[in-house]
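Researcher: We plan to redesign the surface later, but first we want a full-length starting point. Tokens attached.
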């Protein structure tokens, strides 16, 4: 066979060979819990949407929307079959959901603040200093705790304004409600924890429409995309292991009261936890929200609601009340600039507070009570309490 004939033969063989489609490159993949406990698998890919492989079975993922200027990457989604044990997207293992959870991790207010005020001055957190913005470290140490469930109580996106020229503390920051900013503020530093367990995402006031609403609905909200951004999403419930987790959109404080009206009370079969961003029972915890006295009536009666988990204030504050209010646990110390929550005297409140970065964990004991521990940014336990739920009675919070 001549050289020319051989080259012609090889060319024909190459043309006849089946074309192998390139494997989708998946940068991030995670599991979000939605209404009724559905496990929604999401992925950000650089090409076409991959398939979700659930216990060996391929399920095509669909784009949430077509890529655009602000979000130029495909955001893909598929619902995981109930009871699936093994989930894989584009070669990445994705956490499967087991409703018999015993180890829960709470954190919130995790982004790095860059915001221009009405006076024209820009508030800058040192995003490039892991001591001043330790979310990446917190995510890694929290993942090492091996939670069964992660609950983020809101405020993921804080890079709202451009970094002032010449400011090394935030140099290189990408701002605005677009993918590269969300990637820098939440997904890249939070990747270890996203891969550790399924998540419940709670909307914060930073994710309202005029701030980062588009990213919220595209990336984190577990439901179908609305026709347009809305600041009044309805509450939904997730039944898990003798508990009902009621997720409330409190991006605007006016959403709290109507959402509470649809939340069922605790029963002997299931204790109800409220998950929302804005604290509304602790006086002084949110100056924008309606008065606690007005809203407390929605939670009146022993055992109506077992516990309230929130963020918004950049501190850990575990609050027990002398009246019928359930404990309110504020876990907003996940990364944004810290602040103090002033204690109110004479209000019948016992409060345990931690003024540093960290996260909160709950682990269920054989007795049914929860061991509640605050961890610092390195994972060390700095405070241990106990949360005891009893049907028809107010939940007890004991912090030595």
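Model: Full-length starting sequence:
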């Amino acid at each position: 066979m001549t050289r020319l004939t051989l080259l012609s033969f090889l060319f024909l063989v190459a043309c006849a060979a089946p074309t192998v489609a390139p494997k989708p490159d998946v940068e991030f993949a995670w599991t979000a819990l939605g209404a009724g406990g559905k496990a929604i698998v999401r992925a950000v890919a650089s090409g076409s949407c991959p398939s979700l492989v659930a216990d060996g079975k391929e399920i095509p993922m669909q784009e949430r929307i077509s890529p655009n200027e602000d979000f130029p990457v495909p955001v893909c989604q598929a619902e995981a079959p109930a009871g699936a044990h093994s989930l894989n997207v584009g070669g990445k293992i994705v956490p499967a959901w087991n409703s018999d959870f015993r180890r829960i991790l709470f954190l919130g207010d995790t982004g790095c603040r860059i915001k221009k005020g009405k006076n024209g001055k820009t508030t800058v957190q040192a995003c490039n200093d892991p001591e001043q913005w330790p979310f990446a470290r917190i995510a890694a140490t929290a993942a090492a705790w091996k939670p069964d469930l992660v609950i983020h109580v809101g405020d993921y996106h804080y890079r709202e304004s451009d970094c002032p020229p010449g400011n090394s503390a935030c140099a290189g920051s990408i701002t605005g409600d677009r993918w590269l900013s969300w990637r820098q503020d939440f997904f890249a530093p939070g990747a270890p924890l996203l891969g550790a367990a399924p998540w419940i995402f709670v909307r914060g006031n930073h994710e309202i429409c005029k701030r980062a609403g588009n990213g919220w609905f595209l990336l984190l909200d577990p439901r179908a995309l609305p026709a347009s951004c809305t600041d009044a999403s309805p509450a939904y419930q997730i039944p898990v292991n003798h508990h009902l987790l009621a997720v409330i959109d409190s991006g605007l404080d006016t959403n709290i009261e109507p959402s509470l009206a649809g939340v069922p009370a605790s029963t002997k079969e299931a204790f109800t936890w409220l998950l929302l961003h804005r604290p509304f029972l602790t006086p002084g915890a949110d100056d924008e929200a309606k008065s606690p006295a007005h809203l407390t009536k929605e939670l009146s009666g022993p055992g109506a609601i077992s516990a309230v988990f929130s963020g918004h204030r950049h501190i850990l504050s575990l609050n027990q009340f002398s009246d019928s209010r359930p404990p309110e646990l504020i876990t907003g110390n996940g990364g944004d600039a810290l602040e103090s929550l002033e204690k109110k005297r004479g209000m019948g409140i016992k409060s345990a507070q931690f003024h540093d970065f960290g996260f909160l964990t709950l682990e269920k004991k054989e007795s049914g009570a929860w061991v509640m521990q605050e961890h610092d940014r390195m994972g060390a336990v700095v405070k241990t309490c106990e949360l005891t739920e009893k049907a028809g009675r107010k939940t007890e919070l004991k912090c030595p």
